Amino acid sequence: MKSNIEILREKLIDLSNDSDLEMPMYRGWYKAHRKGPTGIGKTFEDLLGKKEDNLQLPDYLGIELKAHESLKNGLITLFTKSPNTPKGANTILRKQYGYVDPESKYDIPVLHSTLCTNKRQYNKKSNHYFEVVNDRNMREIKINVYNNPDQVDSISPNIAWTYESIENSLNKKLKTLAIISSDKKRIDGNIYYKYTGLTVFNSITLQTFLKMVDDSKLFVDLRIGVNHSGKNIGKTHDHGTGFRARFKDLSNYVEKTEIEI
């Protein structure tokens, strides 16, 4: 019986032998199904026949898929999860430590920032320092906020992800992570992608994840906005608080397998 990885590999081989273009020189190239940075993943999922969703579950046959054009320095989103303590944590962050977007017609604070773990970083727009730290005593990953770089005590309430919530996401989403390496080319004014390789990471454990936090090898994307219309106007809209890592760092911390296609 074929494994799910073998099924995925065969699908990639099929894609490499077909194309959206008739000329043999463009074999394996497929026109982007969406503009922008998410086009590469959207196109690949469409080719697999997967419907787009926001479920906290693996993408395909129990495998979490990530298609990336450049694997050297690009950040890979492992999973998205808002802090689970206290209730409404992202609303607290946005209202108390956010900033008003000067380009918005609404006088409502938002908060957008990419934070490297275990480092105190300044957000110029909000005029606050943020730090994501691993509190092993409390068994939490915390977001601390400060007024200045040397301040000892955080001014924020206890905003955190519990170890249990992180481990739950890892077990649900990242039992098997497949990174699809890709090329991009503009042909006749349109963007095309070619999917060229497959790297499989097996079982990112909680202890490995925490080690990466301690070693400043993970990033947290805060993308906390507000709804500008509808029944939830003015309320917090979390665009996806994401834990992200570089391919090279994942390779140093998690066992991987390179699979030829």
Features:
alpha+beta; 6 helices; MvaI_BcnI; single chain; 15 strands; six-stranded antiparallel sheet; Alpha-Beta Plaits; five-stranded mixed sheet; 261 residues; 35% strand
Number of domains: 1
CATH 4th-level superfamily: MvaI/BcnI restriction endonuclease, recognition domain
Mean pLDDT: 91
Helix content, binned percent: 10-25%
- Which structural class do the helices and strands define? alpha+beta
Q: Can you put this structure into words, describing what you see?
A:
Residues 27-251 form the MvaI/BcnI restriction endonuclease domain. GO terms for molecular function: endonuclease activity. There is one protein chain. This protein has 261 residues and is an alpha+beta fold. The protein has a single domain, classed as Alpha-Beta Plaits. 23% of the residues lie in helices and 35% in strands. It is built from 6 helices and 15 strands. The strands form 3 sheets. Strands 3, 4, 5, 12, 13 and 14 form a 6-stranded antiparallel sheet that branches. Strands 1, 2, 10, 11 and 15 form a 5-stranded mixed sheet that branches. It has a 4-stranded antiparallel sheet with strand order 6-7-8-9. The longest helix is centred in the N-terminal third of the chain and has 13 residues, at 4-16. The mean pLDDT is 91.
